[in-house]
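In the previous chapter we treated chains in isolation. Here, by contrast, the input contains two separate entities that must be folded as one system, with a combined length of 908 residues.
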Amino acid sequence: MSTQLATFTLDGHTLAIAVEQVQEVLRSQTRTRVPLAPPRVAGLVNLRGQVLTAVDLRVPLGLPPRTEGEPMVVVVRVGGEPVSLLVDTIGDVVEVDERDFEPAPDTLTGAARELILGAYKLPDRLVLALDADRAVGL
Amino acid sequence: MDDTDEIVQEFLVESHENLDQLDRDFVELEREPGSRELLASVFRTIHTIKGTSGFLAFSRLEALTHVGENLLARLRDGKLTMTAPIADVLLAMVDGVRELLAAIEVDGTEGSVEVAPIVARIQAVLDGDVPVAAAGPAPVVETVVETVVEAVVEDVVEAEVESVVDAVVEAVVEPAPVVQAAAVAPVVPAEVVADEPDVPTGAKRSVADSSIRVDVDLLDSLMRQVGELVLCRNQIVRQAGLQDDVDLVRASQRLNLIASELQEGVMKTRMQPIDHLWSKLPRVVRDLGAQCGKQVRLEMVGRETELDRTLLEAVKDPLTHLVRNAVDHGLEGSADRVAAGKSAEGVLTLRAFHEGGQVVVEVTDDGAGIDPSRIRAKMLEKGLRTAAQLDRLNSVEVLQLIFTPGFSTAAAVTNVSGRGVGMDVVKTNIESIGGTIEIESVLGRGTTCRLRIPLTLAIVSSLTIECAGDRYAIPQVNLAELVALDSTQAASSLERVGAAEVFRLRGMLLPIVRLSDVLELDPGRADGQLVIAVLQTDGRRFGLLVDRVLNSEEIVVKPLSSQLKSIGIYSGATILGDGAVALILDVQALAKRCMRQDSLERDLAQQRGDSEHAAELDQVLLAGIGEGRQVAIPLSMVTRLEQVDASRVERVGRREVIQYRGGILPTIRLDQHLHAESARGDELTVIVYTSGGRSVALVVEEIVDIVDDVDVRSDIEDDGLLGSAVVRDRVIELLDVRSAIQAADPNFFTVTEAVAAGHSVATEPEAVIA
């Protein structure tokens, strides 16, 4: 059985979420910061009149802060609500086979372990399946 | 009478819809005769009509639907099976109902419609007198009806065509008499048949046509879209303001106007008179009165006052609770009342009116009032406050403790009230929709609970402020006033009580909360200038220190994700004119977070002292007008004090005006009005008085102080003065505020008094229900 995944990169890693969860992909937008919010909340954005919470995926994954370039935005539907995810770059939509899936290695620890469901072994690289719900903090 | 009419109108709309449903059901029934489901649906429809007709005393309609209902009940329960004769009588019944409704629509009575024959026929079926056999006749009846209908239709068409032809022919030549006669004959009955339904209603649209029911979801989505439009409008108006293109500016102004009207219109579709809630209360009061052995008269004022339906729903329970409370606790028994020199019958008054973009609902009883000492005792007994805490409160403040969770004053727990889950729940419910509640009571005279409810939840007017480079919105509802401090003032006028910062606002200490501290941000303003937004919620007052005030505008409230809501500082977000997102501050949560619980109630009384009892206390504001002269202005005539940049004064003819909150504020310089000369600076100190939607600004040199009653008066006066008085060993001139205001705006009083007069007429008691 094969599924389609939308890929994106974060600090050199390729991550992916199911294509059906993705609503749209945008360039970076002006964000309004939310004081006192959890660190992963990068701010609020205006998506055609709708106020969305922007989550910087680097924070929950324990990656170092983005040093250069503007992040890209992937709008995903989590629990029925759209949320903007900030990523480094947007990749292709890839077709993966369930047989190429392996759960995260036991050596993967820390925050990332909770959020990475496992890896799809593509010929040229590994694509890490992200648990979007958890990454957003729901 | 009007009320009854309204109910009848509603009944008619509903019944017409029900009849349409009935028709559909019968059609379905033909396809699957004996479907219990359909029969049950028909039964419910008839049952509904019966119920209401009985209530409205339409006896014939009730009699007819009653027997019909009996018959349907038997069919539904399978005691009878559907046959053609039964279908016939049922259809006859529905027709009878239609006729009766038509008659009621004409003049509110059942007219001359006869129902006895149909009732008898149905009764016969019920009694089993009619052979309930053979499904044979049904198709026959149907075909007969069809052919008749066809025949009539044909006749009509023919007749019309012929008569048209005739008319044409007539104009040309004398037609043959035979043809004419033949044509005329069918025309007459055909026309009568065709016109019959229209004759009684005449030119008036029938009830069923003049109103439609709309899905609430559709209204909600319309409301959302209008919200978007308002945002878009804000953006365009803002952009257009920066352009030189006159046409664009004009178009944006039109857009502005249209969007506002559309917004108002859509909001209106969601508005319902508060009477929808109130109409259930007379019964509640009567039953409760009987249960408690009290005589209660319920008066309702302003029952046409409208508010958003979602709010109406939210207010329902709190209001019912307050009414029950008033009857149970508030009003005394007849004997006690007579002993206290009151009439045996207690009066419970519900009053609703619009005020400042809010709906105010008051529940007033003329009962025994609330004894603050009992509240104190109760608070102590339940350990909710210590004696020391209570000692610091005055009686008005003690009264508000009634909203403390876990508080109940009822001596005995009755099944009416007294379970201690009362007023605090009421308060929580009202606050959850952005409303406020306050209570006033005079021992022996009665108690008033006052609810203030926003008109709608979706769009609120708010003040946009800046703090640490970000913009935030504060709902206007919570905003009492703004105080601007320049850098020297800011340094000197913020004082400390221990660790807490305070500001002396007209002699009262106002606790200060720095927004940048709350949000854990670095203060964004280096020049030392500050603005204090004086906020109030739940009767608490505090000053929120912000960097600057940007503007006031209507904003559309957008919900936040639960993650952000749980921070407890923001009530929502909004999109500003430039498309950026701004957070809406939850003033109530801010107050709760930043102020100690027991210190809070204290502010309430001070605020009340300021605003509500000002007239009684006769407090006056002292203002300097130059040359060392000071005038006194009654505090009741002071709505707001503002600092205005002198460059903002513009001219309209010989008059000076200031643009203020989206309007034009007529302005008068008191020094000129009173022939003095004050020092001119870059900043003007302005006293704003607002009444009936009109405002004027009085420019003074400085605000000196607020003092209580000035008793040594003299009638030595001058132009524009009422006299003089001695305050603190100094002669103060008493300003004739009326003449000063008229000097600024000659039409001020004529317009506002007309508004006031109209208002008082509208608030006459309209309904007295024993």
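Residues 137-172 of chain B form the longest helix (36 residues). Chain B touches chain A through 26 residues (CB under 8 Å). Compare these points with the single-chain example from earlier in the chapter.
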